[in-house]
Fold this protein.
Amino acid sequence: MSLSGDILRSWRAPRAVLRARLAAAQGERSAILYLMLACVLIFVAQWPRLSREAASDDAIPFEGLMAGALFGWLFVAPLFFYAIAGLMGMVLRLLRPATRWLAVRMALFWALLATSPLVLIQGALAALAGPGAVALASGLAVLAVFVVILVAGLRVALEAGQGQA
């Protein structure tokens, strides 16, 4: 199935989608593709908020805010997410030593990519409403969806270590 179709399906059946994605994975190439796509989409989601901040405060120009967000989301965030995946992999290996590292990375990176459309919506809401209850509520909703998809993916990673996925 298409990437966008699988993203939408992940909101209903995250375990089935990740199982299929793991079966079709081309090693680390697939994992880094999902991570970089998610980081690019999350970077794009920052644009409306950064525009609003630049218009309301002249301390840092819009280009400066964009450069900082670009550096953060495309260079620093991937390293951070690889470190988080490594820590999660170590913890899961304590629970089930046969857990595959790639399956853990795919679970985290797919959860990021699957929630990135919601992050785009949340970014637009945060820009329209400004900081406050709407931005907080939409951010918490995105976080909840991310956690649900991540936990489902980690369960698949544990199963993959037993040969069930």
